[in-house]
Write a structure and sequence with these properties.
The complex is a heterodimer of chains A (308) and B (82). Chain A is mainly alpha-helical. Chain A contains 9 helices and 3 strands; from the N terminus they run αββαβααααααα. Chain A has one domain. Chain A has a 3-stranded antiparallel β-sheet with strand order 2-1-3. Chain B contains 3 helices and no strands. Chain B is elongated. Classes of the chains: A mainly alpha (308), B mainly alpha (82).
Chain lengths: 308, 82
């Protein structure tokens, strides 16, 4: 472990992702070396990460989210291939439990015909749950193992929970948003989609003198509906991020106590365990909420508003 | 009134007011669940499931506040002071 490190440095070290990006020509790096041309490097401090600008990529978020997604697909597809109608094995019963749970939840919410929604719900629930569950691993173990054993640089940044990175959660939310728009236009046509944005909730008069008021009402409708439309993916992404970031932050804060002597270290161990048990509820709940909200938004996209 | 002090006050307001609203919201939600379960005990599991869904939604805004508050306290404030 790095020698003398203040608690603030410890916290900030654990909050920084492994950032790979391009530093511009003439930039002075942490060791004083001045770059003669723009180079692609891993950031050595959060200042360098900030100066990388748009070209920066969080390699640990990408790596862990892809790895955990592949793990989920691998486990579930293996169980599906070996599924028997006889007495199921433990793993098969578990997978059947999860699939039937997601199936029932989607059936309760989504009443239209689309064969993509339930598998998407299963993917979202299981993937987000596995990514969140990485938060339960003690906060120092994997980063220190990677930094000291694999890379050899104790300063190396490595975060293992992809959903604490707002890029990951907002990326998923933007994906859901694009699907919402795609399905809306597919179900209602582009004209129907625009009509939904401008004629609800106040339906503008189309006959008589009232028609002069129509542009005003359409403008008001458009503002209200657009705000409501944009708020959906933003709240979806930030809800998951906020919950996981706060949880990870508290784990890090409790972990600081481990450096303060034996008794406080023992107390910190108990606190970590208690917070982890509480956090199990938050992890599952947030995965469930993400899945249900996605299904509800898909149902709203398919809804033709005929009954309004 | 230095900038660092203001950052801490802002973060405290963020977290505190969020917690206040959520506490009242959760209390009302739980009370309604108990009332509903007392009226129709056979609906209790279904109601509980829906309550957890609402709890997850209710959690969202204060959690975003807590996330931003933590970021302010541990990243912005030391950045200003250091």
């Amino acid at each position: 472990m790095a020698g003398e490190q203040t608690s603030t440095e410890y916290i900030q070290h654990h909050l920084q992702n492994w950032t790979y990006g391009k530093l511009p020509e003439g930039y002075t790096r942490y060791d004083g070396e001045v770059l003669t041309e723009s180079t692609w490097v891993s950031a050595h401090s959060s200042q360098e990460a900030k100066d990388m600008g748009f070209s920066a990529v969080h390699v640990d978020t990408l790596g862990w989210s892809i790895f955990l997604g592949a793990l989920f697909i691998f486990i579930f597809s293996r169980v599906a291939k070996k599924a028997t109608a006889d007495t199921p094995s433990g793993l098969q019963s578990f997978v059947e439990l999860v699939v039937s749970f997601v199936d029932n939840t989607v059936k309760d919410t989504f009443h239209y015909k689309n064969s993509m929604i339930a598998p998407m719900g299963l993917t979202i629930f299981c993937w987000v749950f596995i990514m969140n569950a990485m938060d339960l691993i003690p906060v120092d173990w994997i980063p220190h193992f990677v930094a000291n054993v694999i890379v050899g640089d104790p300063h190396f940044y490595f975060k293992v929970v992809p959903t604490t990175d707002p890029n990951a959660t907002l990326g998923m939310a933007v994906g859901v948003f694009l699907l919402m728009i795609f399905f809306s236009i597919k179900q209602k046509g582009a004209v129907g989609f625009i009509k939904e944005l401008t004629f609800h909730p106040f339906s503008p008069p189309t006959k008589g003198l009232g028609i002069l008021l129509a542009p005003v009402l359409i403008a008001i409708n458009f503002i209200l509906e657009t705000v409501s439309l944009i708020a959906k993916p933003i709240s979806l992404g930030l809800r998951l991020f906020g919950n996981l970031y706060a949880g990870e932050m508290i784990f890090i804060l409790i972990a600081i106590m481990f450096g303060a002597g034996f008794l406080l270290g023992l107390f910190a161990g108990v606190l970590q365990w208690a917070w982890a048990v509480f956090h199990i509820l938050v992890i599952t709940l947030q995965a469930f909420v993400f899945m249900v909200l996605t299904t509800v938004y898909m149902a709203m996209a398919h809804d033709n508003h005929d009954e309004h | 009134m230095e900038a660092v002090g203001l950052v801490y006050v802002a973060s405290a307001l963020l977290i505190g007011l969020g917690a206040l609203g959520t506490a009242i919201g959760f209390g009302t939600l739980g009370g309604k669940l108990l009332e509903g379960a007392a009226r129709q005990p056979e609906q209790a599991p279904a109601l509980q499931g829906k309550m957890f869904l609402m709890a997850g939604l209710l959690d969202a805004v204060p959690m975003i506040g807590v996330g931003i508050g933590m970021y302010l306290i541990f990243v912005v404030a030391p950045g200003l002071a250091g």
